[in-house]
Amino acid sequence: MMVDLAAFGDEKYDAKAWLNVACRGRLPDDPLDRYLTDLEVKLQLMAETITADLDEKSSSALFRVPRAARDVQRVRDDAITLRATVSAILAKLKQADGTSAESVAALARVDVVKQRMEAAHETLQDAAGLAKLSASVEEVFASGDLPRAAETLASMRRCLAVVGEVPEFANVKRQLEVLEDRLEAMVQPRLADALSQRKVDSTQGLRDILITIGRYSSLEQHYTRVRVRPLRRLWEEFESGKSALPVGTSAGAAKLPATITGPIGGSVSFAEWLPKFYDEVLVQLEQELKWCTVAFPDDYKLLVPRLLVETMSAISSSFGARIEAATEEATSEGRSSGGVGENPVAEKGRSSRLGLLIVLHNMTGEFAKNVQHLLSDFEASEVARVLKAVYVPYEGYKRRYGELERTQLLREIAVMDIRGAVPRGVGQRGVELSETVGRVEASVPELVVALESAVDRCLTFTGGSEAEALLRTLDEVVLQYVSSLMELLKSLRPLCGIDRGSPDKKDAGPESGGSKGNTGSNTVDVIPEEEEWAIVQGALHFLTAGDMLTARTSVFEATLRSVLTKLHTRLQLSIEQSATWSVGPDGGSGPLDMTVLRLADLPDNGRRLMNLLEQAQDPRFHTLPQAAQRIAAFTEAVNELVYEVLISKVRLKLADLSRLPVWSAEEEDNAFDLPNFSAYPLPYVTSIGEYLFTLPQQLEPVAGGVGGSGIGADGGEENVDESQFLATEWMFKVAEGAAALYIEQIRGIQALNERGAKQLSTDIEYLCNVLSALSMTIPPVLSTFQACVSAPREKLLEMAKQEGTHYDMPSLRLVCKMRHVSID
């Protein structure tokens, strides 16, 4: 039974835990009490052994302490002696330093003279060697030994650098430059042949020669010029279709073809051919990288990127021309097709200039990703140069992105069916109005989809760098769309029987602030009763379109602000990482952000963009400021149209109220003293009352559609309450407008006799009862008219002279004038 004593020295020692562990180590057949007894005896023996050993060690230590104390005292005395000796030595050194300073200065002067003499000796040797090399260099060149010639020229360069501007060697400097040019000219054809045939040893030897004479730039130029030819041949394969030009057509005068003819007569478009070109370039680039790693182990990280940069620069102009030709062809095909497919908007998008540009740009983006992966071990600055060269053909289009996007969106909006209403015959106006409103409602989601697609195109094509142009374009396009809706709204006015061209009528409706706004005149023709409510309901459904447009554009603006916020975060992070960018898989930063690279070359655009993105963080920021105002104006115009449609029947009934003969008709004599006026209200006011009573039932289902058209509505009681509120609101608007129109017509009555006054009192009382039944407050002006026309003529003067009267005094005076009562 072994006992581990280390457990007893642990700070976390627990006797119970140790005992449990020890018990688990006993044999199953051993009794527990016997095992514990043996363990106790063993621990006691070990404790006694430890105690005895400790006593022995302590006694021994006590015997050694006096001896150690004596040794410490002896060491202390030796240290004191050593300190005195060192002090004496330091004193002697200080004395020697003072006496030897002059000697050291003299030796320094002698050393300087010696160094100058040695430099003069070396210069004389170099001068002699330079003269000897200058005399023998022609022999070296004649031998054809290019490495030796390079070493000779390098030695001459070193000697000439030591000699300096000595007039006697001025001609040698010029000779050296000529000889270096001569040697470079001799190396060029051999280097071109070695690079073409991929001869590693020859290429390395010729590289060493050029580096020896300081012509490394010549190596880069020759390498690029030779190795770029296979890549350019790949690019020029697309132009093979020009050989099929008609007789009499010069290839130079013809535009670059958008398609080429294959071996079996098929036609391949540029968009179909471009990925194949990129694949071939990647294959050759990978092979070139492997060969350069062997041939130029110290230079391949500079040569390979330069090769790709020079290749893309060489084909940049032709690339742009082919893009232009392809987009022109796609645009012309889109015009000729006319969007006959099932989804004309989508067809227009695919056949547009911008759509094809994005397709080509995405292909280039995939190529750029593969290039970054291939050059993962290269410096980020070199990879950035390559990527910029790859994307150069698209830079002009990116700068014109706003114009291209505007053209795209206008084409998509032009496809939408938002034409105005077409006048129809009697009985079909409600159908035409309903169809027109349906077209407007259907166009709103299409508009939002088009705007969202524009945002996606901007992020895909420009990486968000043209966000400012995007917002400006979206604002202009939505503004034009709403302007089209405003024109459509004008076309509905004749269809609804509304003519706002009459200047002699005034609108007293609440939408125009009482009696100051313009109103429409009477309808040009009488609308049949069976079609009247169809027009009303069609006009009310226009509220749904306006509500949908406001809600959907608000949601789109919120989404757009979210997109701008994410773009701001991404660009800030990329800018912070740009100083430590590493393209490699272990670099930590990942691929280079082309948006940041592009903005680095356009600092003014970058500052404006970042300023815009910072402003977009504010929730009050309007991404579509002008469009939002125009949409609000459109909503107001819709409300005005709906109001005029709803009030048109009231206006029609009240059109000739002030000129009715009943107000000044002569009284008829009767033998029984019966009332000489109708005890019932006249038909014009009863028809208005019936109209107002039936209006809530007509408004509720339509208002329910308006209330439920909001984006994100949850339905249920909330929508029901909202629809009821809208129905009540519009009922009050119409009722207030009817009361205001009625008051305006009463004011136009020129004369009012007793019979007319009593009849008018009956009519006003009926209308007041209708308004009260609709839970409306009676206007004070109408109450004044009712009180004044129902009172006898002799009491009008008394009413006018009462102090603190609650009557509307201008209306009271007007009634006195109508009833020929002088109050002066």
TrEMBL record:
The keyword Coiled coil does not apply. Pfam families: COG7. It is found in: Golgi apparatus membrane. Residues 327-347, 499-523 are annotated as: Disordered. It is a peripheral membrane protein. Its main location: Golgi. One of its GO terms (cellular component) is Golgi membrane. It comes from the Eukaryota. InterPro entries: COG7. Keywords: Golgi apparatus, Membrane, Protein transport, Transport. Signal peptide: none annotated. One of its GO terms (biological process) is protein transport. Belongs to the COG7 family. This is Conserved oligomeric Golgi complex subunit 7.
